[in-house]
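Sample entry (306 residues):
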Amino acid sequence: MSTDRARVSTDRARVSTDRARVSTDRARVTSGEPLQPQDLVITLLGTYVRPFGRTVWSGGLVMLLREFGFSDGAARAALTRLVRRGLIERVRSGRMVHYRLTPRCERLLIEGDGRIFTLGRLPADAGPWTVLWHQIPEERRLERTRLGRRLRFLGFGSVQDSVWVSPHDHCAEVVELVGELGVAEFATVFLARVGSALGLPALTGRAWDLSGLAERYEAFCSGFERYLAGEALSDREAFLVRTRLMHTFRAFAQLDPELPDELAPLSAPRTRAADIFEGLYTELAAPSQRHFDAVTAAPALSAATP
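Predicted structure, serialized as tokens:
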């Protein structure tokens, strides 16, 4: 009898472990890449604060990051680093500390929204390609790094260290970008049409690594599509899902240049993912905002600064 009970207990433990693994696997699919605290703060501010042009209580941000598994120390460190990077700034009100976006961060978020909310909505014909050549001096290394990061988010790929290409017309954005970074004198932007497509597969293979991208789109769809079925979510659950939705979908902006299907047949999974993103982002907006506002509402009286 004792042996039988032990076996039953062991079987139950295995079932419990299997369920936990399934739950963990689902969470990984839904969340996509691991969240980083600084990226998460920017996502929160861009999604729940920027549209209203207001400040947000620091203690509330710490509590929200805690909901995603970050310690209070990691949350505070992320906020401090974002201040040092010039993306947010502190605003004191008595003994309370609030944060607001800097003008630079506002510009980055506006640029990012333009890319994120048009992903999967561009015409099938790639149209003119944008080519950027630059020779930014070594002493301007920071600007060169920032340029590369911003270009990748716009869907550009690098064919050489100083040559970037995109299959779409991003001329205006790139001209504005090199001007903002103060490196316009070292850069030239071209709009070009493909004269012969024979070498395009080799060029695109050098500029972008698209391996596994279709599978990533499918994972995104399978992870988030179930929430479109009308399953009732609490405000907190809606907030967690919508925030991870934005974080995960944003990654596609850097991974997918939206090449014509003859070069990369991704239009079907890309469009499906964009449909799910837009539907859920809108559907969960109200409950997510309620949760964010409730958590970040600063206490009327506080003797401590989080």
